UniProtKB/TrEMBL annotation:
Coiled coil: none annotated. Residues 265-280, 287-296 have a biased composition (Basic and acidic residues). The gene is rpusd1. PANTHER family: MITOCHONDRIAL RNA PSEUDOURIDINE SYNTHASE (PTHR21600), RNA PSEUDOURIDYLATE SYNTHASE DOMAIN-CONTAINING PROTEIN 1 (PTHR21600:SF87). Belongs to the pseudouridine synthase RluA family. It comes from Notothenia coriiceps (black rockcod). This is RNA pseudouridylate synthase domain-containing protein 1. InterPro entries: PsdUridine_synth_cat_dom_sf, PsdUridine_synth_RsuA/RluA, RluA_PseudoU_synthase.
Amino acid sequence: MTTEPASLESLGVLFQSDDFIVVDKHWDIRIDSKMWYEKHTVQAQLRHRFPQLADPSTYYGFRFCHQLDFSTSGALCVALNKAAAGRAYRCFKDRTVTKAYLALVRGLVEKETQTLEFSIGKNSSEGKTHMMCIEGTEGCENPKPCQTELTVLEYGLYDGGPVTKVLLQPLTGRTHQLRVHCSAIGHPIVGDFTYSSGADDAPYRMMLHAHFLHIPLEPEPLLVSGEDPFLPALDPKWLPQRSLRTLTTTVEALLERRLEEDRKIKEEKRERARKEEERRKGRKERRTKEEIEEQTRQCQEWLSEWAGD
């Protein structure tokens, strides 16, 4: 990741197979656009780098499995065929995908690990219809439950002001969820012009990066982890002062928890299926027994009638 603006050539690739490409999306670039003046998009970068992989049957040439905000950088999965897109779509639909984002947020977050559970809806207030908002605020329409896990990694300074480096795991997928949740606890993301009411405009970018992506595809899961773009070597304005835990061990623990949860869910499904099969067999056996008893009764009646005759 670089502090330079995006160009057609600045497309990083984190993973590539016959079915998928995971690109390292640049900050401040749209995934795709129908506007003629939008020359630099991820779609255009892909066409430039991999023209032979573009699918003419799709509008943009590539099937993006999920979305990242214009201002967010990091891992973005692209399916290279319809079948692969369907497999990935089912994982996202079933909420079995694990994503984790790195962020620098304003201020010092005191609680080291926490679950943010603000419901988020569309902001209908004049001049803010491009924004989302938490339930209870003026103009908030159709709020839906949202959850984000927050883990503090480091405390430090950015351009002289106190900031915290955090790992964010969205458990739901509402628009602008991470940005709204961080703002709701009084720690907006550094450089988030929109959710700082236009005040935080000094940084060269919004400090939110999709660092980790795990899609439990069969037979092999897709697992991608990118670099940390928030390092003093890349941005000398960021000065770490106190580390609580490393990024690597935190992500490993997060993935292990998720895999354990998935194992439990699969075991519960298997157990439910086993019990349902037992009930089905039991019902069948009862029906068979009842049918035999009915047939026996009818035979006895016929025998009785025959004997009487």
